[in-house]
Amino acid sequence: MARAAGLTPPPMPVSPGPASPGPGLCRDCGADPGERASCPVCGSRRLVRHPELFDLAIAHVDCDAFYASVEKRDRPELASRPLIVGGTGPRGVVSTACYIARLSGVHSAMPMARALKLCPDAVVLPPDFPRYREASQRIRALMGRLTPLVQPLSIDEAALDLSGTAALHGAPPAAVLARFAREVERTVGVTVSIGLARNRLMAKIAADRDKPRGFVVIGSEAAALLAPEPVRLLPGVGPAMERQLAALGITRLGQLAALDARIARARLGDEGPGLVARARGEDTRPVNPVRETKSISAETTFESDFADRATLEKHLWRMTEKLALRLRREDFAAGGVVLKLKTAGFALRTRTHRFESPTGLPDVLFAAARALLAPEIDGTAFRLIGIGAQPLAPRALADQPDLADPGVPRRVATQDAIDALRDRFGADAIHRGRDL
Questions:
Q1: What are the catalytic residues?
Q2: Domain at 1-220, CATH from 3.30.70.270, 3.40.1180.10, 3.30.360.10, 3.30.1360.120
Q3: Would you give the end-to-end CA distance of the chain in angstroms?
């Protein structure tokens, strides 16, 4: 969903005018506008036309400024105000900003202090993830009515394959998606942008092109449209790859697309040919509704730097409990832990430990992470601490009875009781002594 920081790619043609060839669709009522500049049924000018409009079936759906949209939905008085969602402390970071705030240059991952200098009249709210998850689940349910081939990519975006669904819905995918966007706006109260293309890559690029409330179609013209774009537009091309390509004199996707596969491999390594194919708009990845989760983590950035063991362990325990909760909710266990630390000078340290058997118990996770933390406490001040579970294992395999540790069943029963109380009465219903 996020664009590369600092990159404002040249605009790509979207929603051609009435003189353009190909069928058309009114996004507000679904009518055929013919050659008119506005819909003859409802008068809307939100029309989409493309020669392949009714032939394409791979879509990318991306909610518009999702967190901010949910907040404005629930707080109508903020509708016309610039709104930023993110950390409110001295080291807070922007999670998302509404489009009014973005006009001032505010974007996600920006330090909150800088965001407020750019947009001093913005309203700042902390994230409310339970409400965002609830809205996301409602949107996901609506997607499931369109096709079983829905691949969630994050809380606010997904890829869909609507191939072969025209008979089921009595309409081609483009019309079904336009109807879906209207239903999300009407029933959930947020807006979405849609990209429709031949493959996932181009659908993703299309969805980013006309936000908010966009509907962009890219068909066989994909390679020609990509050619003048900067290489950073391509997913997977970060700053390091951009510099590597620039050293070869390649700054535009058309230049990258022109490389022979053999030359691309010699100059860019094994990933070179695939990179060239994507620069041509090619992508063979299917929409996979079973998306593999590789890791689950929790981390926090401190309001001031800490170097002492007690404070670091206190925050580590809080993150461990969050991690254990997320593992339980997603039905996973940890096959190992990853400790993440960031120094006051922004140097990143990661340390790992692998368990002999998977666990979901926070005290076991914490003991391993604390052992990883101990050698790092050497006077270095840290600004961030986090813990992750990797690799993941099915929860059913976690914390099996062990003759070498007969206390496992008791600890599992204790944790199950704590979880049950918190599920019923809230997170503060019960605390371990370590919390205090």
A1: 157
A2: 3.30.70.270
A3: 39
